[in-house]
Design brief:
The complex is a heterodimer.
Chain A lengths: L2 H10 L2 H19 L35 H19 L5 H14 L4 H14 L5 H9 L4 H14 L5 H7 L5 H14 L4 H8 L5 H14 L5 H9 L4 H9 L6 H4 L7 H13 L5 H14 L2 H14 L5 H13 L3
Helix pairs in contact in A: 2-5, 2-7, 4-5, 5-7, 7-9, 8-9, 9-11, 10-11, 11-13, 12-13, 13-15, 15-17, 16-18, 17-18
Chain B lengths: L14 H6 L3 H5 L9 H23 L15 H13 L8 E6 L4 E6 L4 E7 L7 E3 L2 E6 L2 E6 L5 E6 L4 E8 L2 E8 L6 E8 L2 E8 L7 E3 L2 E6 L3 E6 L5 E6 L7 E5 L2 E6 L2 E4 L48 E4 L2 E3 L4 E3 L4 E5 L2 E5 L6 E6 L4 E7 L2 E6 L3 E6 L5 E6 L4 E5 L16 H12 L7 H12 L5 H11 L5 H11 L6 H8 L14 H10 L6 H9 L8 H11 L5 H11 L6 H18 L4 H8 L6 H47 L8 H8 L3 H10 L6 E9 L2 E8 L4 H9 L12 E8 L1
Antiparallel strand pairs in B: 1-2, 1-29, 2-3, 4-5, 5-6, 6-7, 8-9, 9-10, 10-11, 12-13, 13-14, 14-15, 16-17, 17-18, 19-22, 20-21, 22-23, 23-24, 25-26, 26-27, 27-28, 30-31, 30-32
Helix pairs in contact in B: 5-6, 5-7, 6-8, 7-8, 7-9, 9-10, 10-12, 11-12, 12-14, 13-14, 14-16, 15-16
């Protein structure tokens, strides 16, 4: 089957199905061709006044020293790498041809052609597909094509897309912001934490929830206070994230929310903590004891579900304590 | 007729004569014999009655005591007498009693402001507001006009007004003048009634509209028909003077202190002899400034258009102007130079010159009556309380509970017992008063709250800008109040720091902050040319929480501020959304960006504009604006190129001229004039010289010209043949020859050949 026929066939598939296809295809290509991830960015310090514009953290600059020949070499190497990055990774002729074809489609000005170009880059996969897609996004797209481009970037899973994703995390459409955060969560580019923390203050509840979830996925311990604040302000997804990022020595802080917020919103955090290996047994037993004090049927159900889902992951002593608590709680 | 004594020489009535019907007494003078019977007596009696009645009727149908149609007006002597009587009238005794009608069940009550106690209450069916008239309080009650003793509350009189309604009442001591009326225009009918010690003394009807009277000593002053004021003697009920004005309306006569004031809702003048000219304005007429006040209250009631008096519980009593006239020699002034606006729960003290707000007092209940007094304003509220607010400070001096509740109260124009006006509020305190008034949540008070906002906008201090920002930022405030505050921001000349501080804020859910009113702030900073605002405005441009409706003024402001640092953010904004028309406001903002980019960066904007105009996926209107900007850019560049070319050409020409001049200036003078030089100098007239040869009487082939040249000019010309002298000489003498080094004259020879 010729290449154009394959592309035409793909176009007829639904967007959701295509996203799944791209996710699978792109992940496979990324594994095969992935470059070493860049050095982690420095965390931005939390500002007194929140800014709606998320600025990604700058990548670390190489420090040049005229006296140190090794440093000089390093600087030269970094410069070469930077130039290389601007031009895109080196690709074979076949891939280059596909890229050129995709660029042509993206520049066509016809909606269908642009969409085809986006999809073709998704099918191509790999880091080489990112620059043309980013360039086209930066030139401006209608909402539906922009969303398709974002889904494709998510499927490509390349951290190079970070800067454009940060820009789009402050787009005027909440759907675009949501997609951008999802893509940030999937690609985990440098500086993701600050963009996600800023999004905790978004006016759209879906965006706030996605930001909280993503921070949990990112294990962004630096955002813990903001997550607690978000929990106080009713962002229940912050609960699960807190469960993932709260330091082992501070888990009892979660106990202060027992009785203040619905158990099923706090449950995600407690479940995370109870299954973490870095949290002490004593702390876990204290959680169970406090749940037992609540003594509601809801607690009983929660403990039952947790035991059923965690299974052998829970230490024996903890399991026994949970079972005892369940027995103590009346129906 | 037996015993008839009618006439002399009358004959007994002849049946035939009676049948004719001629009265017997006609016959008396024509030789008839007198009728002596009963019939004759009856006839005579009837005649006497008829004649007597006719005499009486004739007497009554003569000149009425007052309001006669042909009574002379503006008679100097009469007006002088009126003024004299007014000036010599004793001052009214001070009264501190206020009267009012309570809430249901209705009661008429009296309250003493000095002793601060209720004097009496009586049940009443009140059909109008009460009027204080001397020792009596007068009001309409069903179809009667009733009077109650001011101090005791006993009923003094009841006058059946039939179809007429109470227009006004006034009094001094035992004298009470009441005016009632009905109808309008040519169908109007009125009456003036004088009551003395509770008994009706006289009535004077008139077929015209009547106004509110004043009792001054033993005179009753009655305005009527809009133009007239009749002065009626209280004792006789006879009119003794009539004033007619030609440049105004008189609907009220007012006695305040020693003076009488005449006027209407248009204005008032003091009664002086100057009014005999028939001009209110010539007598020093006080009018209110141009401009509308909340509720459009009138200086005085428009009694001529009222079909009936305002009901006792009418809301009209809660909107009024409070003022007390005084004489300032030249004309009329206001007590404490204050005009009070009462609007439900608000009292504003205004300048009578231009309505500048001096202070605003906010009460907790509606005011149902108010009266300007020395040093302030006394008022009553619907909760049955009385209070006094000082003229200077706007602070409440005292408040007392009088009744359970009131619907309307009339207060005297003195008697509250306050002897100082207090100091005016500081600018900051005034701003605080006005802000509190503007932020009041009572929806009925929006017109007055708008006045408060406008007053804040006129304050000179920078903090007033912060007050306006606060109002503009308040999402839950009444929309008209918010819009007025936002609109006034643009007019402010101070307070830039407050504007910048407001722009620093962004919406953040976790912090519980909201977006400021960016659009209005942008307009304000642009008006102030505040360049420090560029960075915050750019931040709001990129903020997705900035309201769409704020984007167009934001873009416009960036253009007006003219800072090039806004170019890149604007270009980025245009690129990002030019193909995504989220809403009409965003599209409008995008349409503005090309023009702004052009203004800020000129040709540098070309790539961004071309990308947008050439994108088929872009919103059409935005693309058109981008194309229009490109066309403008092209035209500008073409014009610039043309201008450059012209300038270059001009410069080249100038350079060439300068070079020629320099060259000439640098060349040395020749030692003598050569043949070539002479020919060159005569070149301009060469053809004419040749023509001289051709036109000579004897045509000749050549001529010899000897020229003596001194200081470049020919001083002598000699021509051979001589007949060519007259033709050649002027031509040669008109030319200039090159300067040479020779100090003396030079003699040269030139041959002219045909």
């Amino acid at each position: 089957m010729r290449r154009t026929d394959r592309l035409a066939l793909t176009c007829r598939a639904s967007r959701v199905g295509l996203a799944l296809l791209l996710l699978a295809f792109g992940a496979q290509r990324a594994t095969a061709q992935a470059e070493p991830p860049p050095a982690p960015a420095t965390k931005p310090s939390p500002s007194a006044k929140p800014s709606a514009t998320a600025k990604p953290a700058a990548e670390p600059k190489a420090v040049a020293s005229a006296k140190d020949p090794k440093a000089k070499d390093k600087t030269a190497k970094d410069k070469t790498a930077k130039d290389k990055k601007a031009k895109g990774p080196k690709v074979d002729a076949k891939t280059q041809a596909a890229l050129d074809q995709a660029r042509k489609l993206l520049a066509s000005g016809e909606r269908d052609q642009v969409e085809l170009g986006i999809q073709s880059l998704g099918l191509l996969g790999g880091p080489a597909a990112v620059p043309p897609l980013v360039e086209r996004i930066e030139l401006g797209l209608p909402a539906d094509l922009l969303e398709a481009a974002l889904v494709t970037l998510m499927a490509l899973s390349q951290p190079e897309a970070g800067p454009v994703l940060y820009e789009l995390s402050t787009h005027r459409r909440p759907e675009i912001r949501l997609r951008a955060l999802e893509a940030i969560s999937a690609t985990q580019p440098a500086g993701a934490e600050s963009a996600l923390v800023a999004a905790l203050s978004d006016s759209d509840p879906r965006v706030r929830s996605a930001a909280a979830t993503a921070l949990g996925e990112l294990r962004a311990s630096g955002s813990m206070e903001k997550l607690f604040l978000a929990l106080d302000r009713g962002n229940m997804e912050a609960s699960g994230a807190i469960g993932k990022v709260v330091p082992a020595g501070e888990v009892t802080r979660l106990l202060g929310y027992l009785g203040r917020i619905p158990l099923h919103d706090l449950g995600a955090a407690l479940a995370e903590v109870l299954q973490r290996k870095d949290v002490s047994e004593a702390a876990k037993l204290e959680i169970v004891a406090r749940l037992e004090e609540l003594g509601t049927p809801e607690v009983k159900g929660y403990l039952n579900d947790l035991i059923a889902s965690a299974g052998d992951a829970l230490p024996e002593k903890l399991s026994r304590a949970m079972l005892r608590a369940m027995q103590e709680i009346a129906e | 007729m037996k015993g008839s004594t009618i006439g002399r020489g009358t004959r007994p009535s002849h049946p035939a004569a009676r049948a004719v019907g001629a009265p017997p007494w006609f016959a008396i003078g024509r030789g008839t014999r007198p009728c002596r019977g009963v019939a004759s007596l009856l006839v005579r009696g009837t005649l006497i009655i008829v004649v007597t009645s006719m005499v009486v009727l004739a007497g009554c149908a003569g000149t009425p005591a007052a309001f006669a149609p042909k009574y002379p007006d503006n008679d100097r002597a009469a007006i002088g007498a009126l003024v004299q009587r007014v000036q010599s009238a004793p001052q009214r005794p001070r009264s501190s009693v206020a009267v009012g009608v309570s809430s249901a069940p209705q009661k008429l009550f009296a309250y003493d402001l000095t002793s601060r106690r209720t004097l009496w209450q009586v049940p009443i069916e009140a059909g109008s507001a009460p009027h204080i008239a001397g020792n009596v309080v007068v009001l309409q009650s069903e179809s009667a006009v009733v009077g109650y003793d001011l101090r005791g509350g006993t009923r003094r009189f009841s006058i059946d007004s039939e179809e007429m309604v109470l227009k006004g009442a006034d009094g001094e001591g035992p004298l009470v003048a009441i005016t009632i009326g009905e109808g309008s225009g040519t169908f109007a009918k009125s009456e003036v009634i004088l009551v003395r010690d509770g008994s009706e003394q006289w009535r004077r009807p008139l077929d015209a509209l009547v106004g509110v009277p004043a009792v001054v000593g033993n005179s009753v002053l009655v305005p009527w028909s809009g133009q007239f004021l009749s002065a009626i003697d209280a004792g006789s009920g006879e009119e003794y003077a009539r004033l007619r004005v030609r440049d105004g309306v008189i609907s009220h006569a007012l006695r305040v202190g020693p003076d009488v004031y005449l006027g209407s809702f248009h204005g008032v003048a003091r009664l002086t002899g100057a009014l005999d000219a028939g001009s209110l304005s010539a007598a020093g007429f006080l009018t209110l400034p141009e401009g509308e006040l909340p509720g459009r209250p009138l200086l005085l009631r428009d009694v001529f258009t009222e079909a009936e008096p305002q009901a006792a519980d009418s809301a009209a009593h809660r909107i009024a102007l409070g003022w007390r006239p005084t004489s300032n020699g030249a004309g009329v002034a206001l007590q404490d130079d204050a005009l009070y606006l009462v609007f439900y729960r608000f009292v504003f003290a205004l300048s009578p010159a231009d309505y500048t707000v001096r202070w605003v007092y906010v009460h907790d209940r509606d005011l149902v009556g108010a009266s300007a007094q020395p040093y302030g304003i006394a008022f009553a509220d619907e909760a049955g309380r009385f209070a006094f607010v000082a003229a200077g400070s706007g602070q409440r001096v005292w408040q007392e509970q009088a009744t359970a509740g009131s619907t309307v109260v009339e207060l005297p124009n003195e008697g509250s017992g306050v002897d100082h006006a207090g100091d005016g509020p500081t600018p900051e305190a005034l701003a605080g008063m006005l802000l509190a008034a503007a932020q009041d949540t009572d929806a009925r008070l929006v017109p007055a709250r708008l006045l408060a906002v406008s007053a804040i906008a006129k304050l000179p201090q920078a903090d007033a800008t912060a007050n306006l920002i606060e109002l503009c930022d308040e999402g839950r405030i009444a929309p008209p109040v918010r819009e007025r505050a936002c609109g006034e921001l643009k007019q402010r000349k101070v307070g830039a720091d407050h504007l910048l501080a407001a722009l620093e804020r962004h919406a953040a859910y976790l912090e519980g902050t909201t977006s400021p009113p960016v659009g209005y702030l942008a307009k304000a900073v642009a008006a102030l040319k505040e360049h420090r605002a560029v960075a915050p405005l750019v931040a709001h441009l990129a903020d997705p929480e900035t309201r769409s409706s704020d984007l167009p003024p934001l873009v416009t402001a960036l253009g007006e501020l003219g800072d090039a640092s806004a170019v890149d953010p604007l270009a980025k904004f245009l690129r990002a959304y030019h193909a995504d028309a989220i809403d009409e406001h965003l599209v409008r903002a995008l349409e503005l960006v090309p023009g702004v980019l052009l203004a800020l960066s000129g040709p540098v904007a070309r790539p961004a504009l071309e990308a947008v105009s050439g994108d088929p996926l872009g919103t059409n209107s935005v693309r058109l604006k981008a194309q229009a900007a490109l066309d403008t850019l092209d035209a500008q560049q073409a014009a610039a190129e043309k201008s450059d070319e012209a300038r270059a050409t001009e410069q080249e020409t100038q350079a060439a001229e300068e070079t020629a001049t320099e060259t000439a200036a640098t060349q040395p003078d020749p030692t003598h004039l050569s043949t070539a030089m002479i020919s060159q100098s005569l070149l301009p007239v060469r053809d004419q010289l040749k023509a001289c040869l051709a036109q000579a009487q004897k045509p000749t082939f050549q001529a010899r010209v000897v020229i003596v040249i001194e200081e470049t000019k020919p001083v002598m010309v000699s021509v051979l043949p001589a007949e060519l002298q007259t033709c050649v000489e002027p031509l040669v003498k008109a030319q200039t020859f090159p300067r040479t080094k020779l100090p003396k004259t030079e003699r040269v020879t030139h041959i002219i050949k045909r």
